[in-house]
Amino acid sequence: MSRVIHFDLMSEQPDKLAEFCTKAFGWNVVKWDGPMEYWLAGTGDRAKPGIDGGIGRGKPVDQVVLTIDAADLDAAVAKAVAAGAEVAQPRGPIPGAGWFATVRAPDGNLFGLMQDDPAAK
Fold first, then answer.
1. Is there a contact between 68 and 90 (Cβ–Cβ < 8 Å)?
2. Are 101 and 115 in contact (CB under 8 A)?
3. Rounded to whole angstroms, how far apart are CA atoms 114 and 121?
4. N or C: which end of the chain has fewer CB within 10 A?
5. Residues 6+ apart with CB under 8 A from 99
6. What is the pTM of this model?
7. Is 68 helix (H, G, I), strand (E, B) or coil?
8. Domains and CATH numbers, the chain
9. Cα angle at 54 between 68 and 31, to 5 degrees?
């Protein structure tokens, strides 16, 4: 079973959205110290059910992108394509975190797939 491990929100003013999420929902939002402009959003006690996510700079979209854990990213993308998805964003690195791709389901929903790899560059 592939577990949802992350969500992404996009904003043209991610610092303002981070401030809003902190005030409105009590999230712990901190700017990531990585090579891209990104804020990590902790949404609560890790001992309780739920997922954390992040806020990136970009145009807001009409949907939240759920990222699903993939032990083997290439195999996960191939499985999604075989089920009817189209590759929206091919495999690429998130430096220091892992490998990421997105697929669009037949109904238009976008899903992220992430393979952990701290050596990704």
1. no
2. no
3. 14
4. N
5. 73, 91, 92, 93, 114, 115, 117, 120
6. 0.78
7. strand
8. 1-61 (3.10.180.10), 70-121 (3.10.180.10)
9. 145
**Cα 3 vs. chain centroid, distance in angstroms?**
13
E-only strand ranges, 1-121: 4-11, 28-31, 38-42, 53-57, 65-69, 86-94, 98-104, 110-116
Alpha carbon distance 7, 114 (integer Å): 11
The strands making up 65-69's β-sheet, listed across from edge to edge, are 28-31, 38-42, 53-57, 4-11, 65-69, 110-116, 98-104, 86-94
- Residue whose entry in the numeric block shows the structure tokens 């890790």: 46
Per-residue pLDDT of the chain (121 residues; tens, 9 = 90+): 788 999 999 999 999 999 999 998 999 999 999 998 999 999 999 898 899 999 999 998 878 888 999 999 999 999 999 999 999 999 999 999 999 999 999 888 889 999 999 999 9
Instruction: Measure the CA dihedral 121/14/7/85, to 10°.
Output: -70
